Amino acid sequence: RSLTDGTVWKRDVSDLRQFGYCLDNIIPGTSLIEHAGRGAFASRDLEQDSIIAPVPLLSLSRSSLEILKKRQDGTVEKATQLLLNYCYGHANSSTLLFPYSNGVNMVNHHSAKVNVKLRWREGSEVIPHSLNAKYMLEMIALRDISKGEEIYLDYGSEWEEAWKTHVDNWRPDPVDVKHYAHKMNTDAKFSVIRTLEEQHTNPYPDSIFTSCYYKLEPNAIDKLKTTKQSVGIYNPGMIAPRNLRPCLVIQRRELPASSSREGKEEQQMVYTVHVLNRPTLDAAQRIPRGHRHYVNVPREAILLSEK
User: Fold this and answer.
1) Which residues, other chains included, contact 280 with Cβ-Cβ below 8 Å and sequence gap of 6+?
2) What confidence tens digit (pLDDT) does each residue in 231-263 have?
């Protein structure tokens, strides 16, 4: 049954003790494996044979992940959605199982340093009272794992051979070269954001745009409708995914150096940005058409995002 039919699920503490799992044993971070991107790390010391994370599974049809991809040169090719890389399944099966618990999709393969395994949920692999997933795996520690240690799973020899073949044969497609915003945001050479003027002569890749964390004050829309230009006030509490929106970087200037807790001088930058709307913003957060709203924000409030 769905939550939209008015059903209210009531569970007592005994139900939580029997079926509950700890969901914060692993946290995301940059993987120690070269070119692996992100990985999962232990948030605390974890004992051998303990449950690292629950792994509920959604059943998907393999054919549902097939797509037609239009390349920049106008040609069309058959491809599969990226979601396929995160599914469990047999090569000859039409059914895939997608794990969607906290952090489990970030656990990378490492056959030599493997420290966790998967097993069916003890007692029964069927999940009781579930609205979505019907089956459950559990991720189990093969040995004691220290806080901060990366979590590794052995994907199997077939996967390892397939990956090696892919790496040996892969060549970048000059038509569909993609620049990943996550990598750029963690690269020191992009620590200084280019202004709009600088981007005229030194542009970011076509797939990248600047965005910032910003939220209009309550009832600000009525005031904005009466003017053509305004200046907002930023505060650190605005850094949240729901407040991320496109922006144009107009100006960058240095603030007087300040001392860090370690006694080192740190140079701070402040950016003047022209705040724009994104399609999914609430009406109370949508800047009126034709109005220019500016705000001064620190570097940590700006991200490079993908179109």
Assistant:
1) none
2) 999 999 999 888 999 999 999 999 876 655 555
